[in-house]
Amino acid sequence: MKVTLSALDTHESSFTPLVVIELAQDVKEETKEWLKSRIITKKKDGVRRLLTSGIVIQVFPLHDNEALKKLEDTWYTRFTIKYQPIDSIRGYFGETIALYFGFLEYFTFALIPMAVIGLPYYLFVWEDYDKYVIFASFNLIWSTVILEVWKRGCASMTYRWGTLVMKRQFEEPRPGYHGVLGINSVTGREEPLYPSYKRQLRIYLVSLPFVCLCLYFSLFVMMIYFDMENWALGLHENSGSEWTSILLYVPSIIYAIVIEIMNRLYRYAAEFLTSWENHRLESAYQNHLILKVLVFNFLNCFASLFYIAFVLRDMKLLRQSLATLLITSQILNQIVESLLPYWLQKKHHVQVKKKVQALKADIDATLYEQVVLEKEMGTYLGTFDDYLELFLQFGYVSLFSCVYPLAAAFAVLNNLTEVNSDALKMCRVFKRPFSEPSANIGVWQLAFETMSVISVVTNCALIGMSPQVNALFPDSKADLILIVVAVEHALLALKFILAFAIPDKPRHIQMKLARLEFESLEALKQQQMKLVAENLKEEWREGGKEKTP
């Protein structure tokens, strides 16, 4: 594709573009002039409409090379265990991305106690499931405390950044939203209108059946995996060689790779379907997309583990499958998300340099090279995939902690490299995204809390199924079930008590917010009193004029 960058034809050396707008090749001059006028008058709907119509291909801010170099030097260029420069990340990428890296760092350090405690359990009391009660109980309390403490840390950060209390803004239609042009009854503006019933028909008659079909296919693939496990186990029992003992891990590794492939293919399908549903607002689009992806990913990643735990009741296979799925998924994510894109980007960079050196045009070659290079970079689609990866990792660590306590240690090792690979990804693989303000991590806080509640049920059930606990109730299984349910309810009650007892905001932040609200109300009151006084004064003057002969 031929690249034309008319802005670079200028001979003014002081010209430094901040944002690049790539237009389609066949755009007319009148359209360019119209877009220029909309940009000058700061009307955002112009770019949005052109993105929807395909006239504007993409809009992105250029990297500030000097600021980026300073950020990299303090962030990831030296592989050492240290705190990240969260405030510097926020200054360059915005609050939303800074909150993700803050959460990643916090979650990694929060996993260390679980890893330290889980290691001796793994080494010394592997088969003593009754001793896992203490470890599982600690896990359940830990999962509650870390999420509540994160709320407090998040509130402190966003208060410092000025985004803790944000005024709700009226949302404009998202790019890609289409319909018959009409007048919005709320804003009075002309915009596309699309009937709600048509959207609901698309959701319930197309999207929902498609999601159910994908879930069924995921379960079908899971049963193929178990057939492979039975084949490998039978082969090992017949020969008993070292080669067949290694072969026992092959089905789990293949299944873990298939899970990652299915997750990514489904993600593309979910994005297409959610876009086809034609949601007017970006928030509605994101909510429907998150729901679709979370449901499928949860079933696809954890269905086999639940089946092994509660149907097959094979704890040895559960440990093996959990370890293989966790480690394989972490390695694949590191390669696919960061290392492979970075390698491809480096190759493309070399090609761009050769093209720039071959140019004889009178332009700023450095700027031209930067624009062409960043134009071909991948677009960062938000923190969704990053949070999803941590969410699934949290599930592997918490859902079956009493069976595989070493999961936290592997998660810590992965996250120590994840911090650097994600930083590399943001700085060198993707275009610089527009910064977005955020007060918290949004719906992901609820997702993590829901996972911690599910982990209570699964761990209590696994401990209740252990041979040691069953031996305590040889005659009455009903008593065992009642005790397990009672313990589960008690732990859930403890979780909710802890969540209620730990304030979401530190005391000093609460006081500052209360003070701010008081000062705002006082300022509003004084403004109203001043307005009333001016009105009374005006009425008195008009009354005096009427009395004057």
UniProtKB/TrEMBL annotation:
Chief site of localization: membrane
> Does the UniProt entry include the keyword Glycoprotein?
no
Pfam families reported in the protein's UniProt record:
Anoctamin
Bilayer topology reads:
Multi-pass membrane protein
The alphabetized UniProt keywords are:
Membrane, Transmembrane, Transmembrane helix
Domain Anoctamin transmembrane, by residue range, is: 89-515
Q: Which InterPro entries match?
A: Anoctamin (IPR007632), Anoctamin_TM (IPR049452)
This entry carries the following GO cellular component terms, namely:
membrane
Q: Where can this protein be found?
A: Membrane
> Keyword Transmembrane, does the record have it?
yes
Q: Which residues cross the membrane?
A: 97-126, 132-150, 203-226, 246-266, 289-310, 390-413, 480-502
Similarity comment: Belongs to the anoctamin family.
Extract the PANTHER family matched here. Answer: ANOCTAMIN, ANOCTAMIN-10
Protein name stated in the entry: Anoctamin
Lineage of producing organism: Eukaryota, Metazoa, Chordata, Craniata, Vertebrata
